[in-house]
């Protein structure tokens, strides 16, 4: 499909086509993967309060309805005209604002390939970034017709599974190019530039995700990514809306939640496994994050899972995308 002019009518037509495709494939509320690597769909039929999630580097499109992501107390609403993009792993809360059984909130998530972004930037031909400052790791961009058309072609491959291995990477590359041409280009460039602060923070986050149970010394982590401790702390908070210690705590508590829910560990065992020395401190911090003590939370989550016959839910998957 050739897009000559990016008009509201063209964008609306593409949004409707995406909504119809996703709604036809996801007939029950929840999240589901697809045969295309990194692509997932979601469907919600009622407004819902914020739930905890880990947002990977990704683009999230709402084809119908409206959602909002909360990061560090700041809300980022997005709908069919505005996409959500995140440039690194962010602890957040995802909220459904507009949805009904008659007009469900449906959309997609596509994980970003940071290596692909770096390759496209290195090839040149892209306009220079006007904003070289390091800002938050999440933003809202305008869903243009060329970007939506690329997603429409990607979804069309689901009806042609034999073509997915050959054509999907080409269309995904175009999507990454469109993002680098969008109003969110600077946010993505700051993470892929190896001499930039954003890239170093992303490397520190990678280390934290692998070593969350270990004692954290911020000075040592800053040195690991070749930054001074004050500079590291400043840019880490600017990008994630958390301090490094708060980020580690978030990782620990969510992993403990997973261990208690999926592997049936008791509270003390889960606390020790993720690096806590005091189960009482663990319970206090768990209650602050999730709003209820661990045992009560497990009872509620298991009851909810039983009510839905074990259907997948973002509430039951702490590391889920904000779908």
UniProtKB/TrEMBL annotation:
Keywords: DNA-binding, Transcription, Transcription regulation. GO terms for molecular function: DNA-binding transcription factor activity; sequence-specific DNA binding. Residues 202-300 form the HTH araC/xylS-type domain. Pfam families: AraC_N, HTH_18. It comes from the Bacteria. Coiled coil: none annotated. This is AraC family transcriptional regulator. It comes from Aquipseudomonas ullengensis. InterPro entries: Homeodomain-like_sf, HTH_AraC, HTH_AraC-typ_CS, Tscrpt_reg_HTH_AraC_N. The keyword Endoplasmic reticulum does not apply. One of its GO terms (biological process) is positive regulation of metabolic process.
């Amino acid at each position: 499909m050739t897009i000559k002019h990016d008009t509201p009518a063209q964008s609306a037509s593409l949004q409707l086509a995406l909504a119809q495709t996703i709604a036809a494939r996801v007939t029950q509320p929840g999240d589901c993967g697809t045969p295309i690597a990194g692509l997932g769909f979601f469907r919600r039929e009622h407004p819902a309060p914020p739930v905890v999630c880990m947002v990977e580097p990704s683009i999230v499109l709402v084809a119908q309805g409206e959602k909002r992501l909360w990061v560090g107390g700041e809300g980022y609403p997005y709908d069919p005209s505005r996409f959500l993009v995140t440039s690194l792993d962010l602890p957040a809360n995802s909220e459904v604002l507009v949805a009904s059984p008659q007009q469900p909130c449906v959309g997609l998530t596509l994980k970003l390939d940071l290596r692909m972004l770096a390759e496209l930037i290195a090839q040149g031909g892209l306009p220079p970034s006007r904003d070289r400052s390091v800002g938050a790791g999440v933003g809202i961009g305008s869903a243009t017709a060329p970007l939506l058309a690329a997603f429409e072609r990607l979804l069309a491959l689901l009806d042609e599974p034999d073509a997915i291995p050959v054509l999907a990477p080409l269309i995904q590359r175009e999507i990454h190019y469109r993002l680098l041409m969008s109003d969110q280009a600077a946010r993505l460039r700051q993470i892929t530039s190896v001499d930039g602060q954003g890239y170093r923070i992303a490397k520190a986050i990678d280390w934290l995700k692998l070593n969350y149970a270990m004692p954290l010394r911020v000075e040592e982590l800053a040195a690991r990514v070749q930054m001074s401790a004050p500079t590291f702390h400043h840019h880490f908070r600017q990008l994630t809306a958390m301090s490094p210690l708060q980020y580690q705590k978030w990782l620990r508590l969510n992993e403990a939640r997973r261990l208690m829910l999926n592997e049936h560990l008791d509270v003390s065992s889960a606390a020790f496994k993720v690096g806590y020395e005091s189960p009482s401190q663990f319970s206090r911090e768990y209650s602050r994050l999730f709003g209820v003590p661990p045992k009560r939370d497990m009872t509620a989550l298991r009851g909810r899972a039983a009510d839905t016959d074990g259907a997948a839910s973002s509430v039951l998957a702490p590391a889920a995308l904000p779908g």
